[in-house]
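Researcher: Structure prediction, please.
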Amino acid sequence: MARGRDTTIPMNIKLEYVILFVADVERSAKFYADVFGLSSGFIADGGDYGEMKTGETTLSFSSLKLMHQLGKNPGRPDTASPVFEIAFEGEFRIGKGKRSASAASPIVTPCKTCGRPTDE
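Model: Predicted structure follows.
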C-alpha cells in the first residue's frame, strides 16, 4: 500500500475508453493505424470524432473544434508540461509492412512508474 492509501482496484470495473483531444482527427487516426497497426472503428461525419479498435478499451480522438463547441477548453500539447502518456506493448509497423519494437521515439522519456502504486 502506497502512503497509507487504499490502492485496491475493484475487479468489476474496466477502462472503457480514452479520448485524446487533437487538431485533426483523421490525421491522428491514420498515424495510429500506420504506426501501431490499429484498425479504425469509425470516423464521424464531419471528422470531429473517431475511434480506434484496441481490444476492450477504445482509443478515441475528439477535435479541438468540437470540444470548443461543447464549451470545453482542452490544453494544447506542450513537451515541457505533458498532460498524458499512452503506451502500447508489442511490435509496431513502420512503413510498408515492416515491424519494429519501437516504431516511434518518445518526445520525453516515458515514466516507468507513473500512476502505479509503489511500496514506500
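Model: Strands lie at 17-22, 39-43, 49-53, 58-63, 92-94, 98-100.
Researcher: Thanks, that helps.
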